[in-house]
Amino acid sequence: MRPRLQSRSIHVAVLTYHRPEPLGRLLPVLLIEAARHEDSSPTDTVTLVVVDNDPHGSARQVVQAASVGSPSDPSSPDLRYVVEPRPGISAGRNRALDESSEADLLVFIDDDETPHPGWLERLVRLHDESGAEAVAGPVRSVVDAPLDPWVVAGRFFDRSHHLGRAQASVLPRAASNNLLLDLRFVRAHGLRFDDRFGLTGGEDSLFTGQLVAAGGTIRWAADAVVDDHLPSERLTRDYALRRTFHIANSSTRAEGALSADPRARARWVAGSGSKAVGRLATGVPRLLAGALTGNVRLQSRGHRDVARARGTASALLGRHSAPYGGREPRDESAPILVAHPSSDLYGSDLQLVETVRGLRESGHEVQVLLPEEGPLGAHFTALGATVDLVPSPVLRKSLMSPEGLMRFGLEFTRATVSHLRLLRRTRPAALLVNTVTIPAWLLAARLARVPVVCHVHEAEADQPRPVRVALAAPLLLARRVVTNSQASGEVVTGAIPRLADRIRLTYNGIDGPTDPAPPRRRAASDPVDIVLVGRLSPRKGSDVALEAVALVRAEGVDARLSLCGSAFAGYEWFEQQLRERATLSDLEDAVELRGYVADPAAALTEADIVLVPSRVEPFGNAAVEALLARRPLVASATQGLREIVRDGDTGLLVPPDDAAALAAAILRLTRDPEAAAVMADRGRADAIERFSVERYRQDMAKHVEDVTAARAGA
Description:
This protein is an alpha/beta fold.
């Protein structure tokens, strides 16, 4: 037991910043607590010190009102008010230390808390009985509105584990929202709150850790309880996740600051790194299992684990959050980064050119990140954007094997670290990821705290649910998800329903010819030229087109098919199958595989009929291009194509993977050229109205600007 001083000065400090109502509720209770303690311990004098971190002194009237309402007895507790103009919680706590330079004990309590009766007496009693240099007490969360079941399931505000801690147990460090300090020990060792943590928090973990390192002891006063009142605006999922990230980040940074020598630093890096990996390894499976089963508890705790992992990892990388001073100011000249998995010139590639054009027209600097040299890059440099070659692993079906997934996992880890370094060096205003198939960019951006827009061009509805969930899960890291059709949005929300509020539908914008040549005048018995523009792959239905043309030729029609497109990497076998099929007698000399075509519009001009026979098609740029080219169109009734083509009015729709139905539609257009021409005219007018490239550019620029504006205002 520490010897009692014959007379002792105790200061109770409250730091405040723009919280008049909670402060007005707290001060009368503290005055009662102080008076009660002075009554029970006549040699103790208690002074309340309010430190206002608003340089304009906005809390002054609240403190004056509490002073007027306090007992008129001259012996009643003193209430002081000071303004600390330097921003940050460390500055406020150090001001409290300075105002208590003659005091013996200093007690901190937050301005949005309320102590239980006898709180101050219990803190002081344990200090006197144990001789501890610091005493901490429990903080109980109190909410005034019903909590979201998702927040409850994640136990984001649950502090019950603290309430079960044994009385007088020893702590390695403590928070400062219910903390008593022996100022004789603090002054003897020159302890101060570190200004580096002033805007981020974690200053109390570092301070109390330094107190222990200096030989002090922190004891737990289980009966000295305060209530922390959580307002409704703090009960949201977003706040809960940000708070979890912040706590992990600030506590990890404090541990690093306590690790002074190289060995301790190495142990901190290894331990924190292992902690981050472990939390990620726990959280991601929980997230996926929760998404698959709809289990709210698994989803919520998975998000909590991932947020803690992110907070720990970001601290290791030298990043911090700033809840007590806002985020770092955003450089208004910071570029928009755009990540893309290909350097070719097909549908989504050309669509990205229009996205970048829209960003440039809106006055943004744009830096495009491509995996390799290719024809796409020149289009961006012509728009005034810069192009850098930054490979990123791409999720492909060919990776769906244990060996492939392991290889992808290693490449994904290396790429995430590399991308994170680039993002930290570049400090972009936002990142636009032009596909869901390069998830390393999404994770790196979240770790770098760069807002992300992900443009989803995929709609893998035919995949097993676990695969769809795995593909959609990285979208949880994006601020906004842009889908190019209702179909692609439905696939995403079917896998992970909670992504619905992030999704915005923006149809692709296609820049067609201003005055396309009319279709060739032909009689019903004339030969017919059929064109299919698209990559050679099973999903594009190139093989279905060959079988349909064979059926058309069997009806005595001289039909010729041109395939304009090359195979995806890894699908060379499919191109070979097409070539072999085209050599059979029913298609001999009727099929031409042109390979990559730089000018699809010129190829469409040669067509009497255009086919888009895709088995799956999230949107279908080729279909819109055919409509704008004023050519009769036959497309599969699948996904986005059903949103583009008005069956029987602007084109014909047939069941996907049905060569007989496709052949029947071709014959219908072939045998009635006049009706086909009328349909083509209606198709062009409809496409101009609904798929304007000007509208697309404006919408995409706005999506990016929305997330940068949200970041600046956060």
